[in-house]
Design brief:
The chain contains six helices and eight strands; from the N terminus they run αβαββββαβαβαβα. Helix 1 (about 5-15) runs parallel beside helix 2 (about 35-45). The protein has about 210 residues and is α/β, with parallel strands linked by helices. The model has no long low-confidence stretch (mean pLDDT about 95). The strands form two sheets. The protein has a five-stranded parallel β-sheet with strand order 2-1-6-7-8, with helices on both faces. Strands 3-4-5 form a three-stranded antiparallel β-sheet.
C-alpha cells in the first residue's frame, strides 16, 4: 500500500484469482478505470473481457459522491443516506434519466459491432479499481445475477470494510486486496491514477474481440 498503478493492482488480483485460470471466466469491468485492469486479468486467466455498464447517481451538490446507482435496464439502488445528501425524489428521477442516456451512448461507443457477452452459466468476475460507497458495484452485481451466471465474483484492489460487507451479499465471492479503516477516495491508494479515456476503453474491447 499504496499500489503503484492499476496494472500492479490487476497483477496482484490475478494471484488471488488464479484458481479460475482455465475455467474460461468472463471478466467484466466497470468503466472506465477498471477496463485496462480487466484486460490484464482476463488475459492471465485465459478468459474473455467485456464491460458491465452501470452509473452512479450523483449527489446534488457533490457529483463525486454517489447517492445510488443505476444499470442499463433502469434498475436502481438508492443509498439510505440519499435524502440527507439532498437527493429528493424529483432530483433522483432527473438524474436517472441523465445516467441512462450516458449508458446508451457508451454502449453504442463500446460495443457497436456486437452485443454484450452473455454471462449465463459462466464464472463472472466483476472488476473495479476500488470501492468507495459500493453503489455502482451493487448495481453491476444485481444486473448480472438476473442473467444466471454459474458464479458471481466481485474483485477489487481496495475498499473500506463497511462497504465490502454491504457489497458481499450481492456476490458469491468477494476478493479484495486491502481494506483500510481510513478511507477518503479510491485514488489515494494509487501512486499513479490517471483518468482512463473512452478511446482507450474502445481500443481494449476491440483488441479483445479480435
Amino acid at each position: 500500500m499504496p499500489f503503484r498503478d492499476r496494472d500492479e493492482a490487476a497483477r496482484r488480483l490475478v494471484e488471488r484469482l488464479a484458481v479460475y485460470k482455465g475455467e474460461n471466466p468472463l471478466v467484466l469491468a466497470i468503466p472506465r478505470g477498471a477496463v485496462p485492469m480487466a484486460s490484464i486479468v482476463a488475459t492471465a486467466l485465459e478468459g474473455d473481457v467485456d464491460v458491465v455498464l452501470v452509473r452512479k447517481l450523483r449527489a446534488p451538490y457533490n457529483p463525486e459522491f454517489a447517492v445510488g446507482s443505476i444499470d442499463e435496464s433502469g434498475w436502481t439502488y438508492i443509498a439510505d443516506y440519499a435524502a440527507q445528501a439532498g437527493a429528493t425524489p424529483e432530483y433522483l428521477e432527473a438524474e436517472k434519466k441523465t445516467q441512462l442516456e450516458t449508458m446508451r451512448n457508451r454502449r453504442a461507443q463500446y460495443t457497436p459491432i456486437r452485443p454484450p457477452i452473455d454471462p449465463a452459466g459462466r464464472i463472472v468476475i466483476v472488476l473495479d479499481d476500488g470501492l468507495a460507497t459500493g453503489a455502482t458495484m451493487i448495481s453491476a452485481l444485481h444486473a448480472l445475477r438476473v442473467k444466471k451466471p454459474k458464479k458471481l465474483i466481485c474483485a477489487v484492489p481496495v475498499s473500506p470494510p463497511d462497504t465490502l460487507e454491504k457489497v458481499a451479499s450481492y456476490a458469491d465471492e468477494v476478493v479484495c486486496l486491502e481494506t483500510p479503516a481510513w478511507f477518503q477516495a479510491v485514488g489515494q491508494f494509487y501512486m499513479d491514477f490517471p483518468q482512463v479515456e473512452d478511446e482507450e476503453v474502445i481500443a481494449i474491447l476491440r483488441q479483445n474481440a479480435a
